[in-house]
Amino acid sequence: xxxxxxxxxxxxxxxxxxxxxxxxxxxxxxxxxxxxxxxxxxxxxxxxxxxxxxxxxxxxxxxxxxxxxxxxxxxxxxxxxxxxxxxxxxxxxxxxxxxxxxxxxxxxxxxxxxxxxxxxxxxxxxxxxxxxxxxxxxxxxxxxxxxxxxxxxxxxxxxxxxxxxxxxxxxxxxxxxxxxxxxxxxxxxxxxxxxxxxxxxxxxxxxxxxxxxxxxxxxxxxxxxxxxxxxxxxxxxxxxxxxxxxxxxxxxxxxxxxxxxxxxxxxxxxxxxxxxxxxxxxxxxxxxxxxxxxxxxxxx
Length: 300
Fold this sequence. Notes:
The chain is an alpha/beta fold. The protein has a single domain, classed as Arginase, Chain A (3-Layer(aba) Sandwich), CATH 3.40.800.20. Helix content is 43%, strand content 12%. The chain has helices spanning 24-35, 51-55, 60-68, 73-79, 85-108, 134-144, 162-167, 204-222, 248-264, 281-299; strands at residues 3-5, 43-44, 110-113, 151-155, 174-181, 194-198, 226-230, 269-272. An eight-stranded parallel beta sheet has the order 2-1-3-8-7-4-5-6, sandwiched between helices. Helix 1 (24-35) crosses helix 10 and helix 9 packs parallel to helix 10.
């Protein structure tokens, strides 16, 4: 069964001006249920992680300041949200969702976090709507519990996974791959194990051909036994914050390619949704829903 981490806390109101694009986290589960892609038993509410889980990926002083609201205003402006207890609770819940998804992926081959993909969160700071790096926390959980020996972070969001790259810079058991828009945020990039910057207006054919070649090279080079897939839909041509030009069909083919590759090599994969900032919320929800449909059709 496809297990999906759902976060009811997303239904809590946000300050005016911060509602979009957070709406997708409420609408996506509704859409999946309405169309029959998922049933209520597919969803689970994660709860909260132990602090020790978070502290494997984040500095204690930063986490303490985050929980108590002592992040300097200048640093919170980089995050993009005003600080609140509810915001910190949301981040912790997302992280626990990814931790639990790791176990469901080991059991079922694939699992999905309806949110997550907070790859701009560094060990000691947050930025760009990211405060706790859920997939980094998940990877550290697997390593600490001897559930994986060699992990691939497959980041296909339009933005480079700069926080993830920095967190695992000195960790040889985690290989960070980021294929992103060359001209996109962050404008000062970190160094992943393998960065693939793409030119503006890169479309379906070039994108998919590049990815297909790289996936086989990644397996030969990395030999992972677990994959974290950040499947942002901000690669779409309609995205306000992206510079690439994928069609919805190209985005669907990207997901199918990743899932087939993971299945062919017996690799459990945990998926976090990442970004999506098209002007129409229905475009964002439909693109994310395609990821769930694709996983459901290929695995179950």
